[in-house]
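Thread: Newbie trying to understand structure tokens

Hi all, I'm a second-year student working on a class project, and my supervisor (Dr. K.) asked me to get a predicted structure for one chain before our next meeting. I've only ever worked with sequences, so writing a 3D structure as a token string is new to me. If someone could post the tokens and maybe explain what I'm looking at, I'd be very grateful. Here's the chain:
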Amino acid sequence: MSETPYPQHTALSLAASGVPVLPLRRGKVPFGNCRICADNACGGRPNMKTPGPCRCPGVCHAWAAATTDPAVIVSPAWAAAWRRAVCVGYYPGGAGMTVVDLDDADAIAWARGALPATRTVPTTRGEHWIYRGAMTSRNAVRPGVDIKSTMAYARYLGPGTGTVTDLPDAVRALAIKEPSPARPATVTVPAGPGGGECPHRTPTYLERGIAMAEQRITEASSAIHATVYRTFLAVLSTHGRCGCLSDAHVARLFTAAQAKGETARHCTDAWTNARTTLGL
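---
Reply by user tm_fold:
Sure, no problem. This is what the structure looks like when written as tokens:
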């Protein structure tokens, strides 16, 4: 029995508003490839990167099968899938949207403190926060937090409440994969922030690190947002817990970033997000 009453009707309504849709079967997963398209033998959608050129009339390629064409949605080839569907899925990236999937109360509490308000939709265990703008999808960007946008699908759970706002840099930064910071075996990190000289590094080492961070930002020729975030993360991972970073050090990093065109707001967001990532 369908969990969404009349899923085909819901799908047609969403498609009319420009949201690509697809049926989801039990388990809330897409229908698999037909025999002709198994293992991408059809030659279409290699590695699921694009929604073409396969012409299979069925619901065959997960998010890449999502459509806004009402003729496809009501076609005989899709009819069997709708009869077995438990709910409607949609392709956020295809509609120019991003869904931040918050899986539990802790994730929701984090989002309320770290992200700007936008439209929210209740889920079984948490909430979907929907922003205007597409980006790279990535799972487990934080405990209980997934990002669903391009090359991903989301389950439609209703219109939600609130006004959809623009996708913030704080969400984009979450999808940037960072290597685990190497930490020398001799480092002893105090439990909380202190003051004065860094207890495990000399002032010369700290000064060289800040200068290198400034240089890295200054020499960036592309992906400025990502470079700024990665640089802030690297500095904080080394000196964020010992209290050796002063306001003057932070100001130097912000000045270098703003000289590359970053706004003060983005610098603050990137610094805050880096601190949150590291649990500072």
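A couple of things are worth pointing out once you decode it. DSSP finds nine helices and ten strands in the chain. The first strand starts at residue 21 and ends at 25. Feel free to ask follow-ups in this thread.
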